[in-house]
Amino acid sequence: MSRVSRSQPPGRSGAAAGGTPAAGAPVVSLHSVRKAYRAGGSAERVALGEVTFDVGRGEFVCVVGPSGAGKTTLLRCMAGLAAPTSGEARFEGAPLRRVPDQVGVVFQDYSRSLYPWLTVSRNVALPLKVRGVDRAARAARIEEVLRSVSLADVGRQYPWQLSGGMQQRVAIARALACHPELLLMDEPFASVDAQTRFELEDLILALREEFSVTVVFVTHDIDEAIYLADRIVVLSASPGTVTEIVDVALPRPRDQITSKGDERFARHREHIMSLVMSRSAAARAARRD
Amino acid sequence: MRVPAPAAPRLASVTSETLIRNGLAARLAVLLAALGLWQGLSASGLLTPDLFPSMTSTLAALWHELTGAVLWAAVRDTLAAWAAGLLIGGGCAIVIGSLLGLSAFAYRSAIPVIEFFKTIPVIAILPIALLLFGATLKMKFVLVAFGVFWPLAIQVIYGVRSIDPVSLDTAAVLQVRGLRRFLVVVLPSAAPFIATGLRVSAAVALILDVVAELIGGGSGVGLQILTAENSGPTAYPIMYSYILVAGLLGVVLAGGFALAERRVLHWHESQRSQA
């Protein structure tokens, strides 16, 4: 990993860059990352094949692939929640040993990741308390991030008293509370209705600008990936390996109607669809033999 | 996809409001009917008064005791051992159970021993406690703490082991570690299991407590039952009134636990509709 330079200034370059990866040291760097469960034993199950790619500072990268491709496993390796069986995952040049301080994660199931015994405010306050932010600064920051996700006056309520979309907004606010460099999102909008989903997609694009945060977003929805991403990492069916990395040639700012109506959107869609479908069909055929 | 949550134990969910609206009148009626039946059986001669005093004479004895100092001292002694045993035995069970539950290796190593101790009928160690401590409050306390510890520890272990992995991943991501992780994430996650365990343990603790008094001679409600019995038939109404007191203690303590559970676990799915 000689090309990873530690002398890179910590400033954020190219936060709103288009299709090209941002210059400088990558935020995340995966090198031949492979994950197997019960490794070595007869019941070994390979969840993730060898995956290599970098995520540049300020980039928005989506990971798509058929179900069972190991998308969640990949995200857990990037977060430092799971250690690769072989290969190496680095965050800002340093090998990942545990979840770095500057990483925020939004899980798919907000009803399980938000603590139901804590109010919305206390959920958001938790990471701030850990970092020793004092009471007044904490209150100010909670109000600020909740306003950023268009939630006001819900601080005293419990997460389960809110709608699904609102709960996921709380989870996003909590992930952003401590100014993360990197935001990892695991199919975050998979359990909300279509209308809410579009709103949340636009919200996350706006937040990315506001917080100039690098985002890695796992989804099984190809349209969502094209709409959001600068680059899309397409994974093959189980065990997942990188089929192709697609640069998304869509101008920003993006818009649900014009961006999705753009002919380049349709071309990307067709291309990625054929990658995902043919690979998963091939994998099914291979399993039958 | 949502993984089905492990079946959490059912929580006590009777609210005082619904009790008042639907059940209180009916319950009172059944209680009065039972008391009436008791009196009827005594009057008809089916219950011989020297073995089984009438309802009225028992309640009269109860009233007499309630206005005296002996009963309250006995209740105090019974509750002291109950509370101390539950506090110490329960506290140890929660701490040790959590530690064992959080480590798969510790769990596998310790569970056979815990399962074995859980199967020992606690009363079987009463002679040991008597030998060591005599007929004292300490003896009762040790017996209660011992009896509470094993079943509650198992319940806590299962509660901690059933914590949603997403909760723990979230804690890791938010950098919540150590004691804060235990207090803010682990304990509340396992709380429904712990609450059920505590509710059952509290009832078991009272039984052990009274038995330790009745057989072991520690002072308290159980000893008063024994003393009254030994005083002969004239004291039987007193004996029966102390039996009623033991029953009432059980009802009050169980009600207290159900109420506390409802307060503490107001966020839990089983309690939300009442919030």
| Chain-averaged pLDDT of chain B | 89
- Supply the CATH superfamily name of chain B: MetI-like
Largest sheet, strands/sense/barrel of chain A: 6 strands, mixed
| Cα gyration radius of chain B (Å) | 22 Å
**Assigned CATH class of chain B:** Mainly Alpha
Structural class label of chain B: mainly alpha
N- to C-terminal distance of chain A: 39 Å
Number of helical stretches of at least 4 residues of chain B: 11
Quaternary state of this entry equals heterodimer
Which range best describes the helical content of chain A: under 10%, 10-25%, 25-40%, 40-55%, 55-70% or over 70%?
25-40%
Q: Overall 3D geometry of chain A?
A: globular
> Largest interface, by Cβ-Cβ below 8 angstroms: which chains and how many residues each?
A-B, 28 and 20 residues
How many β-strand stretches of chain B? Answer: 0
**What's the total count of β strands of chain A?**
10
What would you say about this model in short?
Chain A has 289 residues and is of the alpha/beta class. Chain A contains nine helices and ten strands. Chain A has a domain at 55-83 and 182-289: P-loop containing nucleotide triphosphate hydrolases (Rossmann fold).
Description:
- The complex is a heterodimer of chains A (289) and B (275).
- Chain A has a domain at 55-83 and 182-289: Rossmann fold (3-Layer(aba) Sandwich).
- Chain A contains nine helices and ten strands.
- Chain A has helices at residues 71-79, 110-113, 120-130, 135-148, 164-176, 194-211, 222-228, 258-261, 263-288; strands spanning 28-37, 45-55, 60-64, 86-91, 94-95, 103-106, 182-186, 214-218, 231-235, 242-247.
- In chain A, the strands form two sheets. Chain A has a six-stranded mixed beta sheet with strand order 6-7-8-3-9-10, sandwiched between helices. A four-stranded antiparallel beta sheet of chain A has the order 2-1-4-5, covered by helices on one side.
- The model of chain A is unreliable at 1-22 (pLDDT under 50).
- Chain B is mostly helical and 275 residues long.
- The longest helix of chain B has 39 residues, at 178-216.
